[in-house]
# Entry
Amino acid sequence: MTASAPPHGAPRRRRHLAVLAVPYLWSVVAIAGVARIRVSPAGIPFLLWWMLAGVIVTVACLAVAWRGDERRRIQRGHGTVAKEGR
Amino acid sequence: MSVAIGIAVFVVAMTAGGTIWTARHGRRVDMAEWAVGDRSFGTVLLWFLSAGEIYTTFAFLGAAGWAYNYGAPGFYILANAPLGCALGYWLLPKMWRAGHDHGIMSQGDYIQARFGRRWLAVLISAIAILSLIPYIEIQLTGLSAITQVLFHGDITKTVSVTAAVIVLLLFVFTAGIRSSALASIIKDALVVAVLIAVAATIGTATGLGSIGAIFHRMDVAHPGYAALPGMVAAKKYSAWWFMSVLLVTNVGYWMWPHAFQANLTARSERTIRRNMMLQPLYTLSYFFIFVIGFAALLTLPHLKSSNQALVAVIAHSYPEWFVGLAAGAAVLVALVPSTVMLLTVGTTFARNIYRPAARLGDRHRLVAARLATLAAVLAAGLLALHSNATIVGLLLVAYTGISQIGPGVIASFVWRRVTAWGVAAGSVAGIALVGIPEVGAWWKTVSSINVGLPALAVNAVLVIGVSLLTRAPARRHVAVGLPAAPGGPDTLTPAVLGPGAAG
# Structure
């Protein structure tokens, strides 16, 4: 949907949000291969390990996105800081 | 079990009574408060409110039930909320901005403001309400499963479902969203406490040994559980199925009218983003829910319904007072999120389906909202009575339905050219594909992929194709979903919503 590119002056681009694709690669795309691995480290099925790790990976990616957004907010010095609070 | 029943009733009654009293003390209820809590919730309340939606009956009873029934296929549940948050981090601030800038109170309002077509708001709202009915059915099925276990199966399903319907209606009609936020704080504290206690002691209580021993015994007794397709190979829960249900669930994740509305109560876009970042952590606790499901299978292999697995194993292996606490927590888990869902059924119907163009009094619409809520609960109750579906199975039905408005709604935030006809064509075709039983039956012979995914593909193609062939909405409508630069010519005018929409 490249047609969605907004006209000039439209909302800021947030390229750092590309990191949000990682959870999809981990928890969806990779399953095609992960489902074939039949080992159980420490007795726990590999697929369960993988999905649990996926939660952590997702939080990490969201944290990266959050830091990127926070940095932008501070750089732009938007007067919204006080209003948005905490 | 009378001690357990007594304690469970006490827990629920105290929570309901206490929070309703606190929330309503000296306050009058009007439509705005009933629905969106005056848009003033801060991070803490919002976090609990959303957690209330994550810790649903589905999470608590459904996940344990699927571990009990199938094993590995249930692990997909672990990625639902995290992927939902990854999408939400990007999408929800856009929704919030649209709602905030345009005085929007419901998803239907948004559709109308974004496309300037009232009939499209009616269509999308109707699809949303239809998809919510199996979702409410989940809560009733859960409540009924808990009651059945507490009464040792001495009562019929008719009695337990009827009781569930009555309790749910009482809870919803005595309070709005604000009390549901308070109730979910109590509920979450209780659920977390019960979950930690059970996870720490389930091995000893059932005599199975440590958590490691439970996994070992599963390996011996049910060797197929650890990998796809799980313990019931005939169900064809393959890796493709696993991937497809995650995608379908993800597209539908924020399409629920109650998710839309809960998001509007946030204080700022920043609050929402931070919530999205923290929320997936809740999901790790599913690990223990799976363990409890496995322990249930090893201890009570012949349950009538897997929906009862979690409560049944606790009832079997723990002292009565604890069973009461756990059952009380599980009942709250069903009641609290249902409140939010049912409130949105009511407001969606009253604002976007029932004579949306007419100027009706607040009182009039509130009555319409309550009647719609009543009808939805009764419909869900009837379905629950006549169905033996698993809770996770019901959720997948709900998600294949609601996800069909996803392509259109998401496109409305990123693509200026998307039109009402495009959204309508896509979502109607999608709903038809997932809703006609013959299509689903035929698809199952073709592939193990969930039918919702090919339906979404057809849907998206139609949204794009039909939009390109029809006229784009006026600029002021497009600006609702895609705001132009601040101060630009497209900045909002309250007129977008038209009569009957504001306040």
Observations:
- The two ends of chain A are 35 Å apart (CA to CA).
- Confidence is low (pLDDT under 50) at residues 1-10, 79-86 of chain A.
